[in-house]
Amino acid sequence: MDERIRDHARTLVDWSARVERGDDVVVSVGEDAHDLAVAVCAELGERGASVVTTYASEELDRAYLRAHDGDFDASDAELALYERADVVLRLGGPRNTTAMADVSGDSQAAYARANQAAREARLDTRWVSTVHPTRALAQQAGMAFDEYRDFVYGAVLRDWESLAAEMAQLKELLDAGSEVRLVTERDAHPDTDLTMAVEGRVAVNSAASVAYDSHNLPSGEVFTAPFATEGEVFFDVPMTLQGRRVRNVWLSFESGEVVDFSAETNEDVLADVLDTDAGAKRLGELGVGMNRGIDRFTDNVLFDEKMGDTVHLALGRAYRSNFRDGEEDEANDSAVHVDMITDVSERSRIEIDGDVIQRNGRFRWEPGFETA
Amino acid sequence: MDERIRDHARTLVDWSARVERGDDVVVSVGEDAHDLAVAVCAELGERGASVVTTYASEELDRAYLRAHDGDFDASDAELALYERADVVLRLGGPRNTTAMADVSGDSQAAYARANQAAREARLDTRWVSTVHPTRALAQQAGMAFDEYRDFVYGAVLRDWESLAAEMAQLKELLDAGSEVRLVTERDAHPDTDLTMAVEGRVAVNSAASVAYDSHNLPSGEVFTAPFATEGEVFFDVPMTLQGRRVRNVWLSFESGEVVDFSAETNEDVLADVLDTDAGAKRLGELGVGMNRGIDRFTDNVLFDEKMGDTVHLALGRAYRSNFRDGEEDEANDSAVHVDMITDVSERSRIEIDGDVIQRNGRFRWEPGFETA
Hints:
- The structure is a homodimer.
- Chain A is α+β, with helices and mostly antiparallel strands.
- Chain A folds into 2 domains: 154 residues, Thermophilic metalloprotease-like (3-Layer(aba) Sandwich); 204 residues, no CATH class.
- Chain A is 31% helix and 28% strand.
- Chain A has an 8-stranded antiparallel sheet, covered by helices on one side.
- In chain A, helix 1 packs across helix 2, helix 4 runs parallel beside helix 6 and helix 7 crosses helix 8.
- Chains A and B meet through strand 1, helix 2, strand 2, helix 3 and helix 4 of A and strand 1, helix 2, strand 2, helix 3 and helix 4 of B.
């Protein structure tokens, strides 16, 4: 077995999920995630946790959903499983990332609604999602399989403790600050100059561990919930929305709301998103990607939004974790949460209350910041 | 998809498990049983059952057991899952039938003990076990993969309703009878002449359906719990005991107990079995294989013991289903249940209270019985 698979399993079980003796662990195994599951089971055995394994396959979901008349009953058995679990480890590993292409969105939504209680019970555990590199994911990323494996392990096998310490510095600045300004200059594209209020919000240090209220491995971002957004922003990293590639999105904000927009390809998809509801025109998230193990776009949001030297903004729903106790009602509400990413590695700066905290991809605590 | 996979799924869901709208179904997917699982999920969707899928892999079990210190905790989550389930469909499909070869029997037994409550909850559902043909199973059977698939579907895709009706005739004879006599003549091997009491016992018509208290697909046998066994019996179908092949077993009974024995290969394994406890020297089962879709030994007890024109006897534990209510305490008790199979297709007869009910593989209700 590739030693990196064992390292991945160890990182997941120890750093991310903090598994201890006696924990009741559900391991969800994706279609091609078997090898990672073997390594995870060895780690769980060593720690004296108990384990039950589920199988996650979009091909099975597709067959079930297409055959069903749409009047779904929840699975009480699944609900009971997650209600009793302490930890849920989801090992993604699709064989075909478009396996659900011919299942209607209505059917998927109705099924999700029917199973909401089980989903909430699962989110109430120390859950962590990760992926085992598969050929299907490599293909979606436009990469060779070996190349993609190197990419995934480069992103996952970080020194998380030291990255968490570094990210804590940004969280501290965001928590203490009132206003964030993002500035980028581009030649062939529009410039960005956007200000967002963050006063009173709580930034999350998303360090790929439940100990940091972070449930993805890899992670590596600090995010908060902005409001009162003003100005213009251009996103140069491509994205896939509703199964279609959208490129070079430009948004203009006034009083927190999108008042103008454009996209070079599939602009109508962007228009649809903005039309969803009132909250879809407002930002729900401002995130700063700080995982430099992720150095390229792979069309997988688990990785893309954590890319080092990027900033992402999400239209739509805000995370409750960015609000102080009792203030969760202030969170932007929407049926959507759409992340859009911009490169800040050059001709860019991030300011908090007028102080530059990152310039051309260098944070102010990093060597070379002054001359960046 | 091979149309036979759909037929297999339909037989499993309709005939075997009798799934109805609203049933809470757990589908246990073996390592290489994905394709059958897809077909089963389509059938479950069509019927409006709810579904949760688990993953069964001996490679995962091996990794877990070898890493664990042996002081196992039960999984409460797994227990809760089976307690709420109405139906459990186990789709076996190993990639390697010897995946557990280097896990100690002690460790496996301790783990099984820790999870006894979950196992009992599972056995308390309308559970059915079947297998999806895999290369590993073909290899164990000594067959080519395509050849093995033909074999499996020949065994599974029967006209179960008419086989159940035929088997009902044998059940009726066994239930009404007092003594069964089995006689076979062999040239190079010992002859068989064995009598067993069956008075007061209840034969099970094992027709691959929960409606018949039968939980294997394929099935196709009628079995009861004999006692007061007298005489000698020779088993010409090979068997695998404790991972070792045992051939040409001969047993001699007096007053229900084995008083002498031999085997041509690995006789010491047979001696070990007989030494387990007092019940291991007595018969727990007399079964008559009636599935003529199974026409050869494939080293898989799910198939072997249902082979048409065979009789099997098991040393050890009897099934409670062979006893009338309140008489279950009379069942032979033992830690083992070891099936041994003998060919009755030629120079053989089965008698009940002196009447020949099968001669040279022909039952008395079949054409050609008189001249067989």
